[in-house]
Amino acid sequence: MAVNTVQNFTSPTVPKNLCRIVGLVCLAGFFIDILALAVPPNPMALEWRVNFLQQVGDRSIVLLFGSALMMYGMFENRRMLRQFSLVMLAVGVFFLVSSLLVIRDSLVLQQQAIQTISNQASQLQTRIQQAQANPGSLPENVTPEQLTQASQQLTAQAETLKQNARLGITRVGFSSIGNLVVVGMGLISLGRLGLKRR
Fold first, then answer.
1. Which of 38, 49, 57, 100 is most enclosed, with most CB atoms within 10 A?
2. In the structure, what pLDDT confidence band is assigned to residue 144 with cuts at 50, 70 and 90?
3. Are 180 and 99 in contact (CB under 8 A)?
4. Which residues contact 153 (CB under 8 A, 6 or more apart)?
5. 39 is in which domain, residue-wise?
6. Do 30 and 91 meet the contact criterion of CB atoms below 8 Å apart?
């Protein structure tokens, strides 16, 4: 009886079955995560789209790993392998196209953030200038020198915020683009490998 159990676990189909199980779990986990992130869907909103594609990129290695395991598990079933390979090619192309969308959206988001900072700083500068033009309306403890100092600090802080917005959005965009491109190329390579199998 013990010999029979050992032979069952050393059979060449056992590793492939294990790979199929783990691959299926990885793929199911990835798609459940993505579905949870996509609810409620709002693809026309820039912030939603950037956040969604960033999260997809961050979790995409699980998709690649699960796909590779699934392919290994179904390498002997040519018909299923071909269908799965075509799906991987399509998903890989989708990831590459998504990376272009992330580039565009990151640039637009960066411009919007900088414009918002500029508008708010401009409004505050206008208030300071109005107070400087009418010193009689100032409280007793506020001097014109303090207003000048506040104006200079506001300008410096606005520039710092603009730099931080540029840097932060660029970092997030670059990370998302890198993940989407690398995994997209990996999925395309897996798809091509599966289609070459005769």
1. 57
2. confident
3. yes
4. none
5. 2-134+143-196
6. no
Higher pLDDT among residues 124 and 68, named by residue: 68
Q: What is the pLDDT of residue 13?
A: 79
**Whole-structure pTM over 0.70, yes or no?**
yes
Q: How many domains does the chain have?
A: 1
Using DSSP, state whether 144 is helix, strand or coil.
Answer: helix
Return the residue matching tokens 């699980």. 62
Task: Calculate helix-pair angle for 78-133, 144-196, nearest 10 degrees.
Answer: 170
Position 114: which residue type? I
* Residues contacting residue 120 through CB under 8 Å, at least 6 positions apart: 158
Cβ-contact 92, 188 below 8 angstroms: yes
CA-based nearest residue to 196, from 118, 88, 35, 47: 88
Give the H/E segment covering residue 183. Answer: helix 144-196
104 token code pair: 């565009």
Asked if the bond preceding 139 is cis, omega within 30° of 0, the reply is no
